[in-house]
Amino acid sequence: MSDTDFLKRIEDILKDVLDLEDLAITRATSAPQVEGWDSLAHINIIVAMEREFSVKFALGELEEMKNVGDMVDLLARKTGT
Predict the structure, then answer these.
(1) DSSP H helices in 1-81
(2) Global pTM?
């Protein structure tokens, strides 16, 4: 799966969880830049990502994610793509 594929799927998750149909993200997008992406929403985003990609994140992995690009890189490693 390419970075573009991961970004599209993550964007769809964020749109759904945050109820932001017009949201557009890049690898540099981070929580403070997105309306409604608070700590509770972050938990819901992580759970949705685990379901979507059939992965489980360790606490240390979650702490390392600072932006969407970090999410893409971690998902690529965890899914072997």
Answers:
(1) 3-18, 39-53, 59-64, 68-79
(2) 0.91
